[in-house]
UniProtKB/TrEMBL annotation:
One of its GO terms (molecular function) is xanthine transmembrane transporter activity. The chain crosses the membrane at residues 31-51, 63-80, 92-111, 117-139, 146-165, 185-204, 211-234, 254-275, 326-350, 362-384, 423-443. Keywords: Cell membrane, Membrane, Transmembrane, Transmembrane helix, Transport. InterPro entries: NCS2, UacT-like, Xan_ur_permease. It comes from Veronia pacifica. This is Uracil permease. Its main location: membrane. It is a multi-pass membrane protein. GO terms for cellular component: plasma membrane.
Length: 447
């Protein structure tokens, strides 16, 4: 066997860890690829609840806490996957991070209700995580219920449900609505600059620079915003250097709407994790994922989310962008991803890191979100290209999409509906997913 063949075999081996001089930079690459996506859901939910950017809420420090636990438990959940224990964990280089999929469900649960609504979120995250873990032994048997027609619709709906957030943030965010500042030339200039730089870096560079395009776009936008006096470091000075998150930080409450919503989305998230595991083994080792790897990844996904919920964080899932990074580098080492997890955990114990993130102007974040959520829509459309677009599938897609988006855009039509059911329906995503799954199962295939 030649030295080159030996090196290829090492790169394909999850148990191979390169020297630290190589492993640390590779671990940082994974961190750069997932960092913005990991913290954004917490920022959106805090903003929707009313204690986020520009709210001047006395509870603003809770958004810093949410950023802190987003980093910490993304790292912990990643360790579940890379190191594993017992049947839990795929023992593959899977990076976990805060899931966007649950954001459309979370927004109607917390909208305008402040920190008090987070107790319901905690209960929903824990229930959904445990349900997700319970699916692990059955995951191979339920994949039939979520073909590309359904998963493509769901991913597209996630993006479509959230694209307005990017535009809203780019214009100045909810607190600026109704003021002269909202939609100002300065706000749009900064946001558009982030978009332009992100696209330029993405398509004019290669390797890790291209992978980190959104982060680089934000950094450039941040510097420009700082030069215009849009950056304040007041919260950084107030934040502690070290803090241990506390269990049930927001309390805990269980509602039918939250439990049903989180469990349904956990079902879909579990199938997405199967796809990511398969993508990693195919890209990194040129083989199919084993049943044990898929089952272990599902256990880790669910239990990682449940543990996150205990400490007030949002659900975790495998991050697809890091699957792409493995394909790019050819490095299958779970040791490299473990280093990424350690960086996240260390940052999660330092509130000043979370406070520093809050110095990012909302317009800068808006520019990055426009790109991220647009990419989610594009990923959904990519999945839909695998569908055979006969009359049956077109009708299923059309009805599910129309009802889901329609209910989300016109919530007033549900004024006589029970509050619990209303939360479920106005998410848009859940009724669309539910309809697509049921119609796909009951409408016979065309001959």
């Amino acid at each position: 066997m030649s030295d080159n063949d030996s090196l290829v075999d090492k790169l394909r081996d999850p148990d191979y860890t390169p020297p630290l001089s190589q492993a640390i930079p590779l671990g940082l690459q994974h961190l750069l690829a997932m960092f913005v996506g990991n913290i954004t859901p917490a920022i959106i939910i805090a903003g929707a609840a009313g204690f986020g950017y520009g709210s001047n809420s006395p509870d603003f420090h809770n958004m810093i806490y949410m950023l802190q636990v987003s980093m910490l438990f993304a790292g912990v959940a990643t360790l579940f996957q890379t190191i594993g224990f017992g049947p839990i964990g795929a023992r593959l280089p899977i990076v976990q991070g805060t899931s966007f999929a649950f954001v459309p469900i979370l927004i109607p649960i917390v909208a305008g209700k402040g920190v008090d609504a987070m107790a319901v979120v905690t209960g929903g995250v824990i229930a959904g995580g445990l349900f997700h873990a319970a699916l692990a032994p059955l995951i191979g048997k339920i994949r039939f219920a979520l073909p590309p027609l359904v998963t493509g619709l769901v991913v597209t709906m996630i993006g479509l449900s959230l694209v307005h957030v990017g535009i809203q943030y780019a214009a100045g965010g909810v607190p600026a609505e109704g003021t002269a500042e909202y939609g100002s030339a300065l706000n749009w200039t900064v946001a558009i600059l982030v978009v332009v730089v992100t696209l330029g870096v993405k398509f004019l560079t290669k390797g890790v620079t291209s992978v980190a395009a959104i982060l680089i776009g934000m950094l450039v936008g941040y510097v420009v915003a700082w030069s215009f006096g849009m950056v304040s470091f007041a919260n950084v000075g107030k934040a502690a250097y070290f803090s241990i998150p506390n269990p049930f930080h927001f309390g805990i409450d269980f509602t039918v709407a939250a439990i049903v919503g989180f469990c349904l989305m956990s079902f879909i998230s579990a199938i997405e994790t199967v796809g990511d595991v398969s993508g990693i083994t195919k890209a990194g080792a040129d083989r199919e994922a084993t049943s044990e790897e898929i089952r272990g990844a599902t256990y880790a996904d669910g239990l990682g989310s449940a543990l996150s919920g205990v400490f007030g964080a949002l659900p975790n899932t495998s991050f697809s962008q890091n699957v792409g990074l493995i394909a790019l580098t050819g490095m299958m080492s779970r040791g490299v991803v473990t280093i990424c997890a350690i960086f996240l955990i260390v940052a999660g114990f330092v509130p000043k890191v979370g406070a520093l993130i809050t110095t990012i102007p909302i317009e800068v974040l808006g520019g990055s979100i426009i790109v991220m959520f647009g990419m989610i829509v594009a990923a959904g459309i990519s999945l839909l290209t695998e569908v055979n677009w006969n009359r049956r599938n077109m009708v299923i897609f059309a009805v599910s999409l129309s009802i889901g988006l329609g209910l989300q855009q016109e919530p007033g039509t549900l004024q006589y509906v029970n509050d619990t059911v209303k939360v479920f329906l106005t998410s848009g995503l859940l009724p669309a997913a539910f309809l697509a799954i049921i119609l796909n199962l009951i409408i016979p295939e065309e001959a």
